[in-house]
Specification:
By secondary structure, the chain is mainly α. The chain has helices at 2-13, 18-41, 44-49, 51-75, 79-83, 86-93, 96-100, 121-124, 132-143, 145-170, 181-192, 205-235; strands at 239-240, 252-253. The relative contact order is 0.07.
Length: 271
């Protein structure tokens, strides 16, 4: 029994073996096909003509992914660690909508979340060492979180004030569409973000003047979070692409000699 579990673990979780790579390739193909089935099912004409075929295909993939998830839980050494990991949660969420759709309508199309499982292609193509830029961006976003929160609070306050002002200016005219402060806040958000749907527009000179100011503010406000994150990226320490041969830890200072995780001497690679 232990040998079977070990063999299953090598096939399912190890992408550096021939069997493991083949398993991941087949899995990714199944994921892409299943997402395609969900998309086709949302097209009314195709759904009406091939409803039973699409439903059968969806249940086939759901049962397949359910079996795979159970096998992962069976062979993984630490079940709680896998179940609460990013891929473990995605694996579970990819099968739940089909079962929940039996009891609640409208959840079926959430199955497209299983497209996230395609991220396993990074293991197959051994692109793990090339995700350094994504790590830098994540660290920059985390480091600037307080500034971004303050900025978002400021923007929220600003759109409430602008919405209230626009309602006081245009609210007396029913044909303009500013029927309440929440509707006016919606207009302020759309205008400030330079989206500009055009479903609501001011008609009075004062309202148009306020709209012009909000439009100009929008261009300057959009640049603020970009500048905050960019400053953090510039301040991020330069990392080498060296991967420790003992523990596979990849993020090291460019002048590092020993691995910061296990202490093994590093073999520096040229950038």
């Amino acid at each position: 029994m232990a040998d079977i579990r070990k063999k299953l673990y090598e096939v399912i979780f190890k992408a550096d073996t021939l069997a493991g790579k083949a398993f991941d390739v087949v899995l990714i193909i199944c994921i892409l096909v299943s997402v395609g089935v969900v998309m086709l099912d949302s097209v009314k004409d195709i759904h009406d003509k091939h409803e039973y075929l699409l439903k059968g295909a969806e249940w086939f993939f759901t049962i397949l992914f359910t079996t795979e998830y159970i096998l992962r839980l069976y062979c993984v050494p630490s079940k709680p660690k896998y179940a609460t990991s990013f891929f473990g949660i995605i694996d579970l969420l990819s099968i739940l909508p089909t079962y929940l759709g039996i009891f609640m309508r409208g959840l079926d199309y959430l199955k497209v979340i299983r497209i996230l499982r395609v991220l396993r292609i990074f293991r197959i193509l051994k692109l793990g060492n090339h995700t350094r830029q994504a790590d830098i961006l994540r660290q920059a976003l985390y480091a600037s979180r307080q500034k971004i929160i303050v900025f978002l609070c400021f923007v929220l306050t600003l759109v409430v004030i602008i919405g209230a002002l626009m309602y006081s200016i245009e609210g007396t005219l029913d044909e303009t569409g500013f029927t309440s402060i929440p509707v006016s806040i919606y207009w302020a958000v759309v205008t400030l973000t330079t989206v500009g749907y055009g479903d609501i527009s001011p008609q009075t000179p004062a309202g148009q003047c306020l709209a012009a100011i909000v439009m100009l503010l929008g261009y300057s406000i959009i640049a603020v979070p970009t500048g905050i994150v960019t400053a953090q990226i510039i301040q991020a320490p330069d990392k080498a692409k060296t991967t420790c041969s003992a523990c596979n830890h990849a993020s090291h200072e460019r002048d590092a000699i020993y691995c910061k995780k296990c202490g093994k001497q590093l073999t520096q690679q040229k950038s």
